[in-house]
Amino acid sequence: MDKGMFSMQTMTRRKFLAYLGTGTAALAAASAGLGPLAGTAHAGRTADHMFGYKSNKVSGFFEPIAPSSEDQLILPRGYKYDVVAAYEDVINEAGDTFGFNCDFTLYFPINGSNTHGLLWVNHEYSSDLFVTGAPAGADGKYTAEQIRKLLYVQGGSIIEVVRDDSGVWSMNPKSPYARRITGLTPFRLVGPAAGSTAVNGATTVQGTFANCSGGMTLWNTVLSCEENFESTAEDAGLNPTHYGWVVEVDPFDAAFEPRKHTALGRFNHENTAMGLSKDGRVVVYMGDDKKDACIYKFISSKQYLPELGRGNTVLLQEGTLYVADMKKGKWVAMTIEAVTKRLNDANFKIPSSIKLKREELQAKFQSQADILVNTHEAAMLLGGTPTDRPEDIEICPFDNTFFVAHTNNDSHGNIHGHITRFFEKDNDLGALEFDFEIFAAGGRQSGFSAPDNLSFDSSGNLWTVTDISSGSLNKGVFAHFGNNGLFVIPTQGPNMGEALQFASGPVEAEMTGPWFTPDETTLFLAVQHPGENTEDISKPTSMWPHRPGDTIPRPAVVAITGFRFS
Ligand code: FEO
Ligand code: CA
Ligand code: CA
Ligand code: CA
What we know:
Strand order of the largest sheet: 8-7-12-11-10-9
Oligomer: single chain
Bound molecules: MU-OXO-diiron, calcium ion
Structural class: alpha+beta
Number of domains: 1
Number of strands: 30
Distance between the termini: 20 Å
């Protein structure tokens, strides 16, 4: 068992007391009828404790830590972490192993338990140094065995996790559920682009990779998002139109064919945030994590029917994809009719970011499948607003506003990023009009830079991890922030928008995929790419998680819990 390191708080007493007050305000708001709205995937949490760290305070009680550059995962006083699974750990009796660079985590209770469940974990990308070795083929490319490994270490892991009587989380390596989904697993393409010429007629494709973040469906399956797929597709000689999708897997049922939902568009998918419109249709928010790229939402044609359970998956195959026009405050429907109309209008000026000529675009966009496969270009033609790398999106469980982490964009001076809060018209996720505000800005004044994954707790606090690139950490204007961290930002009350640091990660790591158990007694968190800038494998820049016998750093998932502190 690893114990989190402790650090002195640097927060002023005024700030700290005000923070405690925030939680109370949030609870009051909840009991006054603003409480958890049906339909978001966040229901059923209690709020009288924090990770089992019982106090007479409110949810969210902790003493914030200071930034650090130590090669440790540092937590506030009273909290510890257990390493649940690290790269290459055996996850089942078949000998499958945990993938590299873990990202999104999603806990599925077994029989409603908060101490026993399945954990889905994304694996985003590989490493020449720690995984495959540099390309070793005679042609300067990866060998077949290197490609197999490159594809195997990405995708997702399903592992069984349990918390024992002494409060320690571990993985059950004999689990009958545990399995891998990888770049080698067969997938079915579903939705309007399946079988179209835009994907070379494919209805089945090989594997998933570049799995960044994701989300939970209302029917208890996982959505995992293919983000920066280009390099792996190229290295492995695979058709790039088969990647860049949202994929769905049922962690409990291997017989449920893993699938890619083409109706949700193809781009650098960060995550999904699913909720319901007022009239009961499924709404999925998504960001395209690329400089000057857009925010999207999908609305299903038909209504969600809880009694159908997993059968609701078909809702993701038929509906409308919208892109956000932030100047007009409108969601623009992305249809082939709308794109064709624009291209046929001689007065319409092709945006300068698109390098193709009008005739080339007319040839490219012939069908709805073409829109879905080339989503970003279509969005630019339809007036979608280019933004500063939209990463995670989360729907606030209290008021149906949704939050977007715009991580940064150095192309036009947004060095530290910001978190944007969107207000849908009439608080209806199905609305076609919205307004927005900058909820929190990264920078020395707030103490965080480069917000990435988001998660809400039941007190309405937004948990935010940061992703300052390894090459920038602890240097220049990033020196203030130390290593990447995990911050808690109240969304209501006097400290609204103020970031309180809960964790500091190891050297050259980012922390990803924060996910609570339903009762919030445990927070799962992935530690990705510790020691990423290592040049000489015999001298790694990080050795986290510092397990005896290890000679390299290992990306790993941890379970954070509180313990009584006297
Ligand atoms: Fe994989 Fe957008 O971070
Ligand atoms: Ca991310
Ligand atoms: Ca999230
Ligand atoms: Ca990132």
